[in-house]
Amino acid sequence: MTQDTQANLWAATAKTRSPEVGPLDGDAKADVAIIGGGFTGLSAGLHLADGGADTILLEASDLGHGASGRNGGQVNPGLKWGASALEGRLGKDGARLFRLAETAPDFLEDLVRRYQLNCRFRRDGVLRLAHTDAALERARSEAEALAASDIPTELLNKEEIARRTGTGFYRGGMLDPRGGSVHPLELVHELARASCAAGMRLHTKTPAAALHQDAAGWRIVTPGGTLRARHVIVATNGYSDELVPGMARSLLPVNSFQIATEPLPDEVASAILPGEQTAYDSRRLIVYFRKSPDNRFIYGGRASFSSARDPGVDAPDYAAIHRAMVQTFPQLADAKIAHRWTGLVCVTTDFLPHYHRPAEGLHAAVGFNGRGVALSIHTGAWLAGQVLDRPLSDVGMPCSEIRPIPLHRFRAPLLNLAMRSQQMLDWLGR
């Protein structure tokens, strides 16, 4: 298998580059230290630096090495829970969390415009596809709930969905005009550029080995030195370790496997997603797809609950994803797969993002559950507001305790057993 076949599509096609930086060498001080160079950390760093805070960001590998640089590039609004369910569960905090997620694509669009981020951002909408009649009824109810909140959507029948997607596989669906797409690794690079231009200092290849609190604030130990700061933001999400006690054991990182074809012939590409929307479906193990700017077809999902950080390009999950693609789009049976890649999506047991403040001056936000492109960037800005004591108005996240999941070390076999039952329900059309 050639290197090009193994490559993450976004790394192979990015037209931007991150700032040239290296590891932390020696000791440093800052007002705020950020651990993690993905969307959340970079957005927090940009808004902190713009707000006048002396900020240093540490990334253990390369910027966007985790899910931020390896996702499907879908800019989706919302959460698994609707407004009424969140308010019933969390009260006013639920309403603020709902607005944080629902307005995240608007926030990202404004950010791209203000900082001139060259990341091929588009706002063509997202198609939510129903694979059964029951799922179509749920889509109808969701469209009505969104309409009650003055959020416009369009319910589409089987024929209209077939025209808009290029496949007759689905029973119908809904078009949410707030969705969009982006080249995710270019967005990472551009956020880093803007952050550094605002004054943030940045060090890659700098893992945080230990985190200690003392009278002066926080001390972060790295292989090349130490960093002292009054505040620390931990933005490691699905790549969290035990730097913050218990946090990694409260999360369920799972791989989202993706494949991309070679550029499709014009006559084939023009019939698939002719409106350039992104799409995801109603199966319990969600499938999502879109076209790239150069007319490759990108198809992704979870074929297992693997949490391996490098499962390899020969992992059987890719074959399962390919079979699902051909089942849904038979016209792509002969299309050559040019790229295979994956990244860890961070899932929580309640399918909601969590904000933790386990000690004075220590902040963490995790668990975007596959909707992180816009939501994590909005959350990063919100975190900056918390540190600067300038909270964003009308949006937010409740602060919660870290609650490790019982039997967390046995999560892989238990999750895969659960996955098989969910696949059976999908197959039965439930």
* Total beta strands: 18
The CATH topology assignment of the largest domain is FAD/NAD(P)-binding domain
Helix residue percentage: 25-40%
Structural class, from helix and strand content? alpha/beta
CATH class term of the largest domain: Alpha Beta
Computed CA radius of gyration, to the nearest angstrom: 21 Å
Spatial shape: globular
Largest sheet: 8 strands, mixed
Poorly predicted spans: 1-5
Relative strand content:
15-25%
How many separate domains make up the residues?
2
Distance between the termini: 39 Å
Question: CATH superfamily membership of the largest domain, which one?
Answer: FAD/NAD(P)-binding domain
CATH architecture descriptor name of the largest domain: 3-Layer(bba) Sandwich
Mean pLDDT: 91
Q: What's the number of helices? A: 13
Describe the model.
The chain is an alpha/beta fold and 430 residues long. The protein folds into 2 domains: 3-125 and 178-403 and 411-427, FAD/NAD(P)-binding domain, CATH 3.50.50; 126-177, no CATH class. The chain contains 13 helices and 18 strands. Strands 1, 2, 8, 9, 10, 11, 17 and 18 form an 8-stranded mixed sheet that branches. The longest helix is centred in the C-terminal third of the chain and has 17 residues, at 372-388. The chain is globular.
Q: What's this entry about, in short?
A:
By secondary structure, this protein is α/β, with parallel strands linked by helices. The chain has helices spanning 3-6, 9-13, 39-50, 83-90, 92-102, 104-115, 133-148, 158-165, 184-198, 266-269, 316-328, 372-388, 411-427; strands at residues 28-35, 55-58, 74-75, 126-130, 154-157, 172-176, 180-181, 201-203, 210-214, 217-222, 225-234, 252-261, 278-281, 287-291, 297-301, 337-347, 354-359, 362-366.
